[in-house]
Design brief:
With 764 residues, this protein is of the alpha/beta class. Strand 6 and strand 7 form a beta hairpin. Helix 5 packs antiparallel against helix 6. It binds CIS-heme D hydroxychlorin gamma-spirolactone 17R, 18S. This is Catalase.
Length: 764
């Protein structure tokens, strides 16, 4: 062997070329252990010892694991091969005629590798292109047999595996996470009666009432066709042109201009099925139903200035947050609730339940909790799972059925249709992430990328050659549509028209605005101001304000003031001249602040500032106390790496103010230690971080000498004093009172935001 190697041309082996034994590169077959900075530790994913530090699947709770095992690849200890399984001797050099000679066409190894690479991308989703996924499970609280025979709701404690994908709508696949946008909240239930997809959003209403308008809406909101701007933003002329001409959008606009559109985390936003669905029981009786997901961690959002900054420093902010929560064992959890009502009740409502721009106020029909969903496992491979997952509203199971919502009808068609081009053919249901856990038997055959190998000669029904199999399941087991009676007037016949109550475009827009706290109302007005100020054509701004006057004079006035619009334009003519008398004037659960969550600080991130000469004890104590409560405290210095503490110990900063600016954190702790404080004061990043924390109303803990950093950052001490007393989350530790200050800080962190500090425009 020695002599053969010597006789060969140059750099025959990777070891020679890259020097495996130089102590930097590992020898073949030996992986580098990835460092884990996450509290709570992490384990390797099943048998797959690749460099994913994934959470292990839990027996019984991650039933998709087994089915996906079939296709998981673990290359540990294996040699490279071609796609045909032929071992590859040299992965560095193409085949040439002599070392300086021409490359040879016969090089099947090179051609296979490059050809596959050439086709690595698939079209991105036409909307919701940017998304992040996770595995988990749904657990039923109580049998729901009275209302539905759907498999996930059969028994208390029954577990159904799920895969969830969260997304933004407007931006492309690589766009920022913190855009002002609706978030998709799509859940695939792998039930034992087939797959059920609940493809919802984090907002319970929608922009339009009829699928006919969806392509127009999406064209209007997407980057403008002539110059392909703006990316991941709705603040542009074509969007506001369209929605200002579509008064039915007004209710949805209120939601999208609220802080709902800039969530802090996927784990802190609600999800909604949006449309009215039906639940059907064993007797075939059906009721109407609206689905609600409510996060256990509470509903929390960013503020706009923060969202804008985060999008530059960490465009993957939500994706990273979801990944880290799961890796560190702080599993995102949501309660599923249903609003159930009968057809007779629905007829009495002041709005039409087939209109997706309307919600059913909780005061009218309470939300009944039916189970919980826990997301406890990151995907092994983004493309195979999160990108290839195909959600389709048409995928329902016995016990769940549709209403006649015309928007839903369009969706039932659209999702299957879009997957056929996105995933390259009609067999996308066979992709591992899409395949149901139950067996599939039918006479559909062939097509691109068919994986099933159907045996025998029977591919039709009825048949006698195959013993009549696969046979019709019949009404007892199979899916039967609710034989709902259509209450169309006989003389109407086929029409292109809308039911009368669809014409009320403003009552619920007003309800939403009136149900917000003053801080939230202010954010809504500011968001309209921001978005419309980016609109270049004055007539569009005016039309939008004219429309808002029909929902809220107060809001319209605030927006007009923000745009320097004086006098106000006349209100837009209403489609329904007589205002509707709504059942409720105010619905407090529509406020984000109404759901503070479980009061824990799990999954929060805190910056603990350090610099040479820092008083380490208090900082490390805060870090330990945060870790005990499931939060991550990161040591952030002017530079990363070890540095001497005041007591001679060494502290190791794993982030710097440059690579993890302060606004990426939920809270900040300023340290004691004269030398450290002097060093931090020398670094402009410190003052910026403090300003941002202050402006974004997030908790701050100020220890000892770092008091002066506040003054340095332009926060007057007089103001700081009144703020401390006002309980606004700025905690200045008095000497000897560090422990109670830390406790107050953790308490402030649990409250999340301290809006008492907010000023428009910001003073600091
Ligand atoms: Fe979608 N929508 N949509 N949508 N939608 C898509 O399907 C569509 C609507 C929603 O993570 C597409 O696979 C029409 C409402 C989510 O993979 C497409 C209409 C709601 C996702 C499509 C609507 C949604 C999509 C693009 C009006 C909330 C991402 C790629 C009739 C209830 C799912 C794809 C994922 C994705 C069509 C309106 C939610 C083109 C025609 C209302 C969460 O099929």
């Amino acid at each position: 062997v020695q002599s053969m190697v010597a006789a060969m041309p140059h750099n025959q082996t990777k070891a020679e070329e890259h020097g495996f034994d130089n102590g930097i590169n590992p020898p073949p077959g030996h992986a580098v252990e990835p460092p884990s900075r996450l509290v709570g530790g992490s384990t390797l994913s099943e048998e797959n010892s690749s460099d994913k530090v994934g959470t292990a699947a839990l027996d019984g709770l991650n039933a998709t694991t087994e089915s996906l095992d079939r296709v998981r690849v673990d290359s540990t200890g294996r040699a490279l091969t071609t796609n045909q399984g032929v071992a590859i001797a040299d992965n560095q050099n193409s085949l040439k005629y002599g070392v300086r000679g021409p490359a040879l066409l016969e090089d099947f190894v090179l051609r296979e590798k490059v050809t596959h690479f050439d086709h690595e991308r698939i079209p991105e989703r036409i909307v919701h292109a940017r998304g992040s996924g996770a595995h988990g499970f749904f657990e039923c609280y109580q049998p729901l047999a009275k209302y539905t025979k759907a498999a996930p709701f059969r028994a208390a404690g029954k577990v159904t595996p799920v895969f969830v994908r969260f997304s933004t709508v407007q931006g492309e696949r690589g766009s920022k996470d913190t855009a002002r946008d609706v978030r998709g909240f799509a859940v695939k239930f792998y039930t034992d009666e087939g797959n059920w997809d609940l493809v919802g959003n984090n907002i319970p209403v929608f922009f339009i009432q009829d699928a006919m308008k969806f392509p127009d809406l999406v064209h209007a909101v997407k980057p403008e066709p002539h110059h392909q701007m703006p990316q991941a933003a709705s603040a542009h002329d074509t969007f506001w042109d369209f929605v200002s001409l579509m008064p039915e959008s007004t209710h949805m606009l209120m939601w999208v201009m609220s802080d709902r559109a800039i969530p802090r985390s996927f784990a802190t936003m609600q999800g909604f099925g949006v449309h009215t669905f039906r639940l059907v029981n064993e007797q075939g009786e059906s009721v109407f139903c609206k689905f609600h997901w409510t996060p256990v961690a509470g509903t929390h959002s960013l503020v706009w200035d923060e969202a804008v900054k985060i999008s530059g420093a960490d465009p993957d902010y939500h994706r990273r947050d979801l990944w880290e929560r799961i890796e560190s064992g702080n599993y995102p959890e949501y309660e599923l609730g249903v609003q159930i009502f009968t057809e007779e009740q629905a007829e009495e409502f002041s709005f039409d339940i087939l209109d997706a721009t309307k919600l059913v106020p909780e005061e009218l029909v309470p939300v009944m909790p039916v189970g919980r969903m826990v997301l406890n496992r990151n995907p092994d491979n983004f493309f195979a799972e999160t990108e290839q997952v195909a959600f389709c509203t048409a995928q329902v199971i016995p016990g769940i059925d549709f209403s006649n919502d015309p928007l839903l009808a369009g969706r039932i068609h659209s999702y299957v249709d879009t997957q056929i081009s996105r995933l390259g053919g009609p067999n996308f249901h066979e992709l591992p992430i899409n395949a149901p856990l139950v067996q599939v038997h039918n006479n559909q055959r062939d097509g691109m990328h068919r994986q099933a190998i159907h045996r025998g000669r029977v591919n039709y029904e009825p048949n006698s050659l195959g013993g009549g199999c696969p046979f019709q399941a019949g009404a007892a087991q199979g899916f039967v549509s609710v034989p709902a009676r259509i209450r169309a007037d006989e003389e109407q016949g086929k029409v292109r028209a809308k039911p009368e109550k669809f014409a009320d475009h403003y009552t619920q827009a007003r309800l939403f605005y009136e149900s917000q706290t003053p801080v939230e109302q202010c954010h809504i007005a500011n968001a309209f101001r921001f978005e419309l100020s980016k609109v270049a054509v004055p007539a569009i701004r005016e039309r939008m304000v004219a429309s808002l006057r029909n929902a809220s004079e107060e809001l319209a006035q605030k927006v007009a003031d923000g745009l320097g619009m004086n006098p106000l334009p006349s209100p837009l003519p209403r489609a329904l001249p007589d205002p509707v008398t709504p059942e409720v004037q105010k619905s407090p659960p529509l406020s984000l602040l109404a759901r503070p969550g479980d009061g824990t600080i799990k999954g929060r991130k805190v910056a603990l500032l350090v610099a040479p000469g820092v008083e380490a004890a208090a900082i490390l104590r805060v870090q330990a106390m945060l870790a005990e409560r499931g939060a991550v405290g990161r040591l952030v210095g002017p530079r990363i790496g070890p540095m001497p503490a005041a007591n001679g110990d060494v502290v190791d900063a794993d982030a710097s103010l440059e690579n993890e600016p302060g606004f990426l954190f939920d809270g900040i702790v300023l340290p004691d230690g004269a030398e450290a404080v002097a060093a931090l004061a020398q670094d402009g990043h410190t003052a910026e971080s403090i300003k941002d924390q202050f402006r974004h109303c997030k908790p701050m803990l100020v220890l000892g000498a770092s008091r002066q950093l506040l003054t340095h950052a332009g926060i007057p001490l007089a103001m700081d004093k009144s703020l401390v007393q006002g309980g606004t989350g700025l905690i200045v530790a008095e000497p000897g009172q560090e422990d109670s200050a830390i406790a107050a800080f953790i308490d402030a962190l649990a409250k999340h935001r301290h809006f008492g500090r907010e000023m428009d425009p910001p003073l600091v």
